[in-house]
Known about the structure:
The protein is mostly helical. The chain contains 15 helices and two strands.
Amino acid sequence: MTVARETEVSAAAKPRRAPDDRSRTSIRWYSFRNISAIYLFIVIFIVFSLWVPRTFLDVNTWRSMLDTESLTAIVAIGLTISLAAGVFDLAIGMQVGLAGIVVAQLLSAFSLPIPIAITITIVVSALVGLVSGLLVVGLRIDSFIATLALASVLTAAVQWVSGGQQILNLSAEFQALGTSDILGITLPVWVMAIVGVLGWYVLDRTPAGRHIYATGGNPSAARLAGVSVGRVTIISLVVGGVIASFAGILFSSRIGVGDPTIGPAFLLPAFAAATLGSTQFRAGRYNILGTLVSVFVLAAGSKGLQLAGAPTWIPDLFNGLAIILAVGLAKWEGRSLRAMAVRRRLADSHG
């Protein structure tokens, strides 16, 4: 009878604890620290819906923004993978520029078929990522310094290949890649979606993703656990370079020329999205979903400011302040939550 009574008490106790656990999980999920970008987007949407409703709420504005920002999102996804592995890839912007110039030169000067030109461009981008990885792992140069130096080398390479001029005479078939649509959605958006889903799956659902996070979180502990930290670092940079090449190829296709100046414009937005995204959903861990959400939150703010007639430098200011505000408040809330947890444990111990 005693055992049966204890079982009944235990079974009765479970339903009373479950709602409390669900409540705490719900509070954590909806906290500013976890989804600050969502709250920021709500504020942005309300402000510009009242300020410039005719243009900001127009469907074509949002369709155009989705198409335009898809390339930034692709670059940010590649950057997120390397950042998750603990590598700051400051060369990723110039890898976009290099891919755009290489594919244009192969098509214009050598008249190669489009599939072959694209394949060669992707291989070149992978080799650049490999060189970057060897500098970091083989020569043990800090990733910040190694990729910054490599970005300078790639800038020189882009100027050498292009002669400092735009590469013209790209075929209509190639230009169609960046402007054609499937089911009303342009090809760059489809590429972004596919790369995003694959990146999310690898990072969140596979052993390779766990190795990447382990390498970025604590390389020493990862080595002790049997993770090949050097190999993971190199592969993350190679994958990031390949993904960046997709954006470069699509950008040249979209504008119809190989432009030697496009690379640097992708660096800050990609880092801004990845940094803000690291505060979303995964408690300080770089993640694909957070990055994608952040890309379009920041883009919505920039677009709203442009539609309101703000100076051209205002969007850059907005991006910087948004990151500082979101990350700063998330850190502040994290400290507050830890302090509350300490006080609760102290109260429970004295109770």
